[in-house]
Amino acid sequence: MPNIDFRKKISLARPRPYGSNLQRALESDRGRIINSAPIRRLQQKTQVFPLERNSAVRSRLTHSMEVQQVGRFIVHSIYDRLSDSEKDAYGLSSLERAVESLVEIACLMHDMGNPPFGHCGEDAINRWFTKHLKELAPMQQLLTGLSSETTDPIIHELCHFDGNAQAIRLVQSLHRFNLTYSQAASVLKYTRPATERTDQVPADKNYLTKKVGYYITENSYVNSLMDELEMAKYCRHPLSYIMEAADDISYCLADLEDAVEKRILSLETLTEHLKRTFAELEPDNRPIKGRHCFDRLLDNVYQDAQNDEISPNHKFFIKLRVEMVHPLVNHASEQFTNNLEAVFNGELNRALIEDNSQFHALAKTFKQVAINHVFNDPEVENLELQGYKIIGGLLEEYRPLLDLDTDTFQKIVRGEGRKLPVERRLFNKLSRKHVAAYEIALKEEAPVTNPTLWEFYLRCRLLQDYISGMTDQFAFDEYKTLLVSD
Ligand SMILES: Nc1nc(=O)c2ncn([C@H]3C[C@H](O)[C@@H](CO)O3)c2[nH]1
Ligand SMILES: O=P(O)(O)OP(=O)(O)OP(=O)(O)O
Ligand SMILES: [Mg+2]
């Protein structure tokens, strides 16, 4: 009998403990997240289409609500799969409400740290830092005085901004939500500290560490969380697999629905692309567990939609979602229970639905069609180029703050920057919350021995916090305001 007890992974423990009732503790987590500004900001952040004005097209917020629904569905499906004696044996019997709440809120939070303009926003921040970090005056000084062993991990981290790591930072350092460790751990999707490179982690954890998981500023928090929930190094919390599967299942259909809504694809061409792509991935085209084969299923959905007098597009996606979400959710829950020990220990080195099955081929088909026929649409790519320009341009405007030496920057922080008119005004535009996090981190024990390096690192983080916290629209407006003469 494997040693699985979910009560070790789902508990009341949090950084500043209070209360003794698990359900109430999780309600408090829900309240904090649902009522938070970073969640509200998701309504003006890109899912696929930057600066989208059509509100029927998904934003990060509406996407996250859909992920929440799929996450709930997977939890119910997992519970339906387990017998009472299995639930007892795994410590899950009295935890259904808790698991449901943790997963729902993890799904709602999962993109909270994403910058404006989606993936290209992340990339734009990293491009700017990769290109300019070593040119910045304090960094040039540090590079002459310190060994590369000391500076390399910090440089690596600052050139790898990641939305997932930023979500952990928002929860702990910027908003101090004091969530239960279980709730925070459910969104910890990658487990590699940003100071480590991918070639420094064990090969059997390469999927779990393929992206940056958390920054050095949250290192001690993540260590406490992992100790508390008995998570081994580079391993995940079991519920994060459900959040990840819910995201994968949700967006693969939603992105295509949005593409049809925006008239990038017609239902005819979409159906053709889906059939052709699936045939390449799964040539034998078997029936999908208890249903027709994919081609037949698509033809039926298409025909039904044509008979709808009001909205064939809407009907098509309702039917397709019914046909696809059930098998994919069932598959995710089956993978969860079939691999329960590896999932419990957080060492399953892949996503739940990525197992080379026909379900995996289905999800891949949808994603592939989006990559080949939606993300490269000229309108989308033009907007993304604007996104690069806006983020790169904003970082360039704020660069004077990063060129100052520590003492001069500290003067501005203390309000003594009268002789630095531009820098002082730029500093005044930063969010007070972000500046407070910078000041608190400076007062606490530094995880980096050189104080100048630590201060400069925190200043770069401060700018990344500010830029990544912006919505698409705010970033665009700021860019127009600051680059008024261009
Ligand atoms: N516009 C755009 N360009 C891309 O290259 C791209 N790659 C992924 N995505 C969307 C798909 C999921 O909704 C979500 C998560 O992958 O982000 C993209 N969107
Ligand atoms: O939704 P995103 O943009 O975060 O994209 P993802 O496919 O969920 O990727 P990641 O693994 O970086 O969260
Ligand atoms: Mg994500």
TrEMBL record:
InterPro entries: dGTP_triP_hydro_central_sf, dGTPase, dGTPase-like, dNTPase_1, HD/PDEase_dom, HD_domain
Reactions that this protein is recorded to catalyse: dGTP + H2O = 2'-deoxyguanosine + triphosphate + H(+)
CDD domains registered for this protein in UniProt: HDc (cd00077)
E.C. number(s) listed in UniProt: 3.1.5.1
Domain of life from the UniProt record: Bacteria
Gene that produces this protein: dgt
Species: Grimontia kaedaensis
Family membership noted in the UniProt record: Belongs to the dGTPase family. Type 1 subfamily.
Cofactor(s), by name: Mg(2+)
Residue intervals of the HD domain: 60-252
Protein name, per record: Probable deoxyguanosinetriphosphate triphosphohydrolase
Keywords noted in UniProt: Hydrolase, Magnesium
PANTHER family reported in the protein's UniProt record: DEOXYGUANOSINETRIPHOSPHATE TRIPHOSPHOHYDROLASE, DEOXYNUCLEOSIDE TRIPHOSPHATE TRIPHOSPHOHYDROLASE
Function in brief: dGTPase preferentially hydrolyzes dGTP over the other canonical NTPs.
Transmembrane regions: none
GO MF terms held by the record: dGTPase activity
Gene3D superfamilies linked: Hypothetical protein af1432, putative deoxyguanosinetriphosphate triphosphohydrolase like domain
